[in-house]
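Please annotate this fold before class:
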Amino acid sequence: MRLLGIAFRNLLRARRRNGLAGGTMALGTAALILGSGLSDGIARQLTDNLVAVQTGELMVVRREADFVPQNSPFDAYSNEQLTNGAAVVREIEAGAGGLGILKVAPYLHARGTAIASNRSTPAVILGIVPEREPELFKALPPRHGVVLSGQPEEVYVGEPVARILRLSVGDSVSLLIQTSEGAMNSLDAVVCGIFRKGAPWYDNTFFIPLEAARRLADAPEGVTNIKLRVEGSGRVALSTREKLQETVTRSSPGSSVESAEQAGRFSFSIIQANEASLTILSLFLFAAASVGIVNAMLMSVHERTREIGTIRAMGMRRGGVVRLFILEGLALGLAAAVLGVLSGGAMVLYWANTGIPMNTVTLAWLAGGDYLYPRLELSSVLRAALAIVALSTLASVYPAYSASRLEPREALHRA
């Protein structure tokens, strides 16, 4: 502790040089915390939206024979109806308690066209059971009107498509699709609510009650996907998936149980890309900080040659000199880490409350929404702080070794 106190005092003797080196590390720490906050925010937004709206922790789905993953958000959906879909739903519900399944939410996905007055637009049509979708409506809350109540002629639409079709609450819209038999069916519905824009891949989505979607698709018991909410950790979900796969294979040949990571590969690929970018940024920051620390410590050794010779002449061993300079590196890292955590944490908390506008379509797709809300995770803060302290300490090893090699007589003579 005595040497650490001396190390802090020595840092104050060269305020300008150590201030520049420490400032570089503090900025690096703040940048790491901000980068982690952005990455964690994107990961949370994408994952929450994916699980709440599309896949759940697990999803039962039947893929087309020629299905090729395109790394698209629409990969989560399928156009193929499950064999015995309604029966599979009932069987899963019957054994849900023993499998740790909290909610079973079937839905029917179709692509078609939405027409209002003299305007039309491509449409993604999703038939859902409204009372089973509280998380969906929380993720896509109404801006105007109300959420689906289950009435057969209701439709819940997003703001972007409502603007295209000039729809307001109470207006009529026609949904037109081609059934699996090749017939053209239509459904006339009334807008009950317009939901706030979320992830851009929901811009053209029309939510209708499942029974209405079945009439539209001419599929009385049609189900394309079954979204399952599972309690516990990812390991529990994996165990549930393995048990459930047997039931699904027996009841619905050709169907499979996919995890959120499998069904939502698009979202998780974005998360992985962000993590890779953060790792590369961290390496560059560490390299720049290392050069600054080594330079500052070597300059300190050069300027304190007489002091080193004096303390060596007074009996301090080489190991003591090494410890002293390494502790100075540690002290510099601690000071920089504290400043970096305070400044970086403050920025993340500010933007977590206000949000960062994603002003282009590309940014909106990257962040999973028109606004990005960073997250301040304790693990990310500790990781950045510990990394910069460790870096500062390790970077001081070579200067410390150089200082310890000075012989007392040589040091006093050179000074």
About this structure: The two ends are 29 Å apart (CA to CA).
